Each structure stands twice: as structure tokens, then as C-alpha cells.
């Protein structure tokens, strides 16, 4: 993918009611951030919707934090703007419930993690069956949102930008630092709620 500033996702040139991004790019960034990008994706959708409907008293941050309670409303609003009737009432309810269930399975430690490390938990969960299904669901949801905004495949935001590389780098630096600290300083890390069975250089005799 070509790196360019012209398609910067933080300052779209066209106002749309939902966040437009290539579904492939969405999956790449979600996987590269162990699922955390999907939180940013939710926020961007609510932010775009708020800016498109300034009289609608919604809080993008609040609705992102409590995403399971508002995913149905997001899809319901998408259905209201769906001129092609791709989204039915049954689809809105079904995919909302599927999102909530899969999010719980991939986030709240219900997928086995032998090393018992919170960072590895996200990695293990994302590539488990529930994680793959959640990624597939996000792909489908983004296609529908893009279609409503007149850009089905997200051609206006399909490049990995320099900004993406910069915050991905910062993300992984922070992640590796936390991981290293939690392994080397187990006692201190456990005070912060980070537990791990991983050990480096310890004598097991």
C-alpha cells in the first residue's frame, strides 16, 4: 500500500455520517494493535455521526467506552440511512448480539491463555475462533457503513499513512516496555494487576 498524506484518516475532506475506511485496512490495523484499533474505529464512527448531525446529543467517548450497550444503536442508525435496504431489522439485532458475545469471548479472558499474561491474552484471543469471527463481523459492518457513505470499499481511506506507522510504533514500544517490565519485575507488576507465568533466567531447581 502506498503511504500518503492525502488520505489522512484523521481529517477526512468529505463529511460523512460514518467513518469510512477500507475493510482490509481496518483488519490490518486491528490485528497489528491486537484489537485495540477497533476501539478507535468505534470512536471515529460516533464522532463522524455527531459531526454530521450536530443537533444529535451523543457523546462519542461515552458510547465508545460502553460499546456493547450502543452497538445496536449504531447499526440502527446505519439502517435508517440504508437506501438499498441491505440492513434488515433482524440483521441489526442479530449482528449486535453477535458483536457483544464475540467481544466478551475475546476480551474477558474466556479464551485459554497458558502463560496467564494480559498482553498475550489479547494476542491469543484475537486469533482464536471467536476472535476471527469478530474480525469477520467488523469487516462486514465496515462494508455496510462504507456503502451507506457511497464508498463501499473505502477507496478514500485505504492506504497505511505515515501517521498510522508512527502511532503503531508508539503502541508497540509501550506494549513491549510493559511486557518486559511485567516479566522482569513480577512483584511490582502484580501490584498493578498484571500477572504472568513467564520467567526469564530463573532457576527452577
Keywords:
205 residues, mainly alpha
Radius of gyration, taken over Cα atoms and rounded to an integer in Å = 19 Å
Q: Span between N and C termini?
A: 51 Å
Give the overall form: globular
Poorly predicted ranges: 1-12, 110-120, 197-205
User: Beta-strand level of the residues, as a percent range?
Assistant: under 5%
Topology as a string of helices (H) and strands (E): HHHHHHHHH
Topology (SSEs and partners):
Elements: H1 23-32, H2 37-52, H3 60-65, H4 67-80, H5 89-107, H6 118-126, H7 129-148, H8 162-184, H9 186-191
Please provide a written account of the structure.
There is one protein chain. The radius of gyration is 19 Å and the shape is globular. The chain has helices spanning 23-32, 37-52, 60-65, 67-80, 89-107, 118-126, 129-148, 162-184, 186-191. It is built from 9 helices and no strands.
Summarize the structure in short.
The protein has helices spanning 23-32, 37-52, 60-65, 67-80, 89-107, 118-126, 129-148, 162-184, 186-191.
